[in-house]
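Let's sit down with a protein and look at its sequence and fold side by side. Please make up or recall a protein chain and show it to me in full. Label the sequence line and the structure token line clearly, so we can match residues to local backbone shapes. Go ahead whenever you are ready, and we will take it from there.
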Amino acid sequence: MSFPKAPIKRFNEAPTCAPPPGSYDIKTSDPSKGPVSFEKSQRFKMQMEDGGVQPNSNNMKPMPSPATTRKLPSLGARPKSLGRKSDKSLIAIKELKKQKELEKEIRILIGIRAQQHKKLQALEEDLAKSESKLSAAVREKNTLLANVASLEKQLLELRKSNDLLKTKMVPVKNGDMKIKLNVVQGTVEEKLAQPEKLIETERPAEEKYDSEKLLECIVELGNVAEQDDDKYKLHIVQLQEIIESKNKDIETLESTLHLKETMLSTQTEELNGKCKILEEQKEKCVHEYEEKEQVMNAEIQCLKEKLSIEEQELQKQQKIFKETSADMHQKLLKFQEEVAKERDILKTELKEAMDELDKLHTKEAKVEKLLKHLEQVNESQNEELSQLETKLQRKSAELDEMAASHKNIIEKLQEEYNQLQFKFGETATEFENYKVCMTEEITCLKQDKAVLQERLTEMNRTVQNATHAMQEEQHAKDQAKEDCMRMLLDSQTKIALKDAEIDKIKESSTMQIANLQGKLEQQSEELNKKLEIERKTVTEKIGADYKKNIKTWRALYEDLYNKVKPFQQQLDAYEAERNALLNEHGATQEELNKISDAYAKLLGHQNQKQKIKHVMKLKEENTQLKQDLLRLRAQVAKEKQAREELQDQINEIQGVKRFDPSKAFQHPSKENVAPKTPFKESNRNKNQAVLH
């Protein structure tokens, strides 16, 4: 019998005390000598040739222990598994890094979104301020229109008073003249009647004397009548001049009023147009912001759908992996059963060998030297095995640390491997105790080894297929993440462009509002000056009438003030409700701050599902708070309108006008006189302070 050569040398080492396996030949023994007969001289012949040269088929090969036969294929397969596990650990580390980068980008995007939300809130505040300014301008316009209406009423009253004076003057003049003429005629008739009587009595003596006196009286009466006519004519001329001057003043006032009305109408049209433009710009901004929000929400939903799809795929792959692991476990169980059967066969063969050993005791002297050599070889191999076991333990520890996800499979394989080692160790002890090497057993073990190698190759193939599938999934995940990153970059660029557009619109709107404010201030100053001039001119003419009516108006005002006192409580109640609403708004702001703090804390957490759920909850709460805020603003606006309406009603009940005529035209300065030098800013401010 001959021992065939081992397929592979374990290590390329120099020969030590004993020749390495496969480096000596053995001749075939005669069949009469027995199955284990050989010559000593040829057995330990050293061959100095290279280890790659194969001896003949009848070359002797030392019987490897069962433990070494089991460990050799495992040693050949372990570096591959090490490389694969290191690749998997590197892939897992890359995935974790990518996940952390994505989380950082999500946080950055959330911060950018918060900044944009703050910018939009600032824009809304600016728009609210501009709206308040426009409303103030509209109120000023309304006050000016009310003042113009009051002036028109005053003009109508002046015209009526002028007409009344004219109508009064004409009959007075005619009545006075008629009365005087009648008196003169009566006196003349009386005096004419007296001379007739005297003539009758004393005609002859006093005719001349009476006639002379009558002539003198008639001349005197004619002179008096002529003087009275001249006086009345002068008075009539003066009154006509006054009426003409008043008519001219009225015409000038009407012309100025028409000009002011045209100016105010043009200004109101311009302001309305600008207000419409600003409202359109506001609507555009709001519409663009809503579109942005919709696009971002759609992108987020797409990303969520992709994540759900990837999670489903991962679950499917996990199921497949579990099924494959179950199949592998079943195969391992079958393999254990086969090993048990082979062990039984080996036991039977060992019994037969024991029977043969009883026959071979006579040949032990020849075999002792060989056994000593084999013991030395076994010791060296055991030392190498111990070193390899220590190395394997170190490498297994490193692999366990690097590949935490594959621990269960590796532990099962290690347990099965240890069981096999234990079984083969028992067989090795049996072989060492009996010190017999049987060629048939070696052939059987080689066949088992080949079967095991085939099975191990199948296992490696399945593991390779699984790793390939995992790599494909990882590649798909990387592609999806790249697509998400591209989408996020596109959205960021779009948002930056929209922010630039919004900044430009803000700058243009602020410039326009500043220009409008300057124009409105100039126009209001001019109108105030003109109105004050007109008020002075009118009040100088009608001051006496107003002074008479002041006492009556004061009495009426006091009565109405006493009547309006209960309304003051309602106004105070409205103010209290407004303050309560403002306090509620402050409480909501505090709640928002708390929610933002909790949100910032949760962003540091590692659980992405909790993050997504919490972000959705925060979005819902944010929308609810926005709706509440809009509702509160609407309530405040309604209360403001109701308060203004109540104030208007109170003013109407009290008879209080927006412009108090009792305070008008009581300035010591002469505004109708043109200044010698143009006004500076200080002079303008002084004059405005004097006017107000």
Observations:
- The first helix runs from residue 40 to 43.
- Residues 100-157 form one domain.
